Amino acid sequence: MKTIKIFAPATVANLGCGFDVAGMAIDGTGDIIEVGVEEGEGIEISNRSEVPLPDDIESNVATPAVRALLAAYGKEVAVRITILKKILPGSGIGSSAASSAGAVWGLNEVLGRPFSPERLVEFAMEGESLIGGGARHADNVAPAILGGVVLIRGYEPLDIVRLPIPDNFYAAVVHPHITVTTREGRGVLPREIPLKTATTQWGNVGGLVAGLALGDMALVGRSMKDAVAEPVRKRFIPGYDSLHDALFAAGALGVNIAGSGPAVFAVCDTLAGAEKLCEVMAAHFAALEIPADTYSSKISGEGARVI
């Protein structure tokens, strides 16, 4: 059997204003996945991590993603996937995306790279559809595969833009050990929004892209506001409003919910600043007696990669 071991990074989706159309990869945590192929057919997934995964292969997000790739590949092979280290499911930092993105990225490598990274995003979206109630979104899987910060300009057809990364772009992320599923997070969203709200959101998305292009972290930060999802999703995060205010008081340039939550992210322009924000995050959840993990890192251009 030909095998490869890869790392797929955790990700932050939406970036505040960019619901389903913006996301970034973060260093420090992710999935380690071993992918192998041999003659034959079928998919086998085994879990050697400490995180429980579905016993039913049909409920694993990697399965539809791998099947989509194999259907396009057009040749039968037996695929063996081993999860060695797992982002906690329901964390809000791309647990399912790392699995599906890592699986197809690794399989593509083993097969000799028959598909472009952008095509791999399309395959990985099938895994997101499985846990998102049919919603095929790429704001986690695209940065998990491509790295850096991405904008999904459109879905029909898929049009992905890799955005510039300012040299002084740092992030702090906290994952409190509570669970919010993607389905729950999407279930509370409004089905219609007022024009005024939409206009606010459009302005912030434009500001986010402009800030990244100009290397203006202050503009990036003040554009990471969300008039649509944050107001209804913050109920899932204990003390969110007080944490939000405390992070800005500690020097954050922007604060919001990572994906559906419960993870929260903040951005700033120095590593020392990001580490200070992590201290604020940790103290907030410690006071609530909720275990939490924090991560601080510079935003880099690396996505899934061989280790």
CATH topology of the largest domain: Ribosomal Protein S5, domain 2
Could you describe the largest sheet, including whether it forms a barrel? 7 strands, mixed
Computed Rg:
19 Å
Helix segment count?
10
End-to-end separation: 18 Å
Q: CATH top level of the largest domain?
A: Alpha Beta
Characterize the overall form: globular
By CATH, the architecture of the largest domain is named: 2-Layer Sandwich
Structural class: alpha+beta
Order of helices and strands: EEEHEHHHEEEHHHHHEEHEE
pLDDT < 50 stretches: none
Number of DSSP strand runs: 11
Kindly report the average pLDDT value.
93
Summarize the amount of helix as a percent range: 25-40%
What is the count of structural domains? 2
Strand percentage lies at 25-35%
Give a structural overview.
- Helices cover 37% and strands 26% of the residues.
- The longest helix is centred in the middle third of the chain and has 20 residues, at 195-214.
- The relative contact order is 0.19.
- Helix 1 (62-73) runs parallel beside helix 2 (95-110) and helix 1 crosses helix 3.
- It has two domains: 2-164, 2-Layer Sandwich (Ribosomal Protein S5, domain 2); 170-298, Alpha-Beta Plaits (2-Layer Sandwich), CATH 3.30.70.890.
- The strands form two sheets. Strands 1, 2, 3, 4, 5, 6 and 11 form a seven-stranded mixed sheet that branches.
- It is of the alpha+beta class.
- It is built from ten helices and eleven strands.
- Strand 8 (254-257) and strand 9 (264-268) form a beta hairpin.
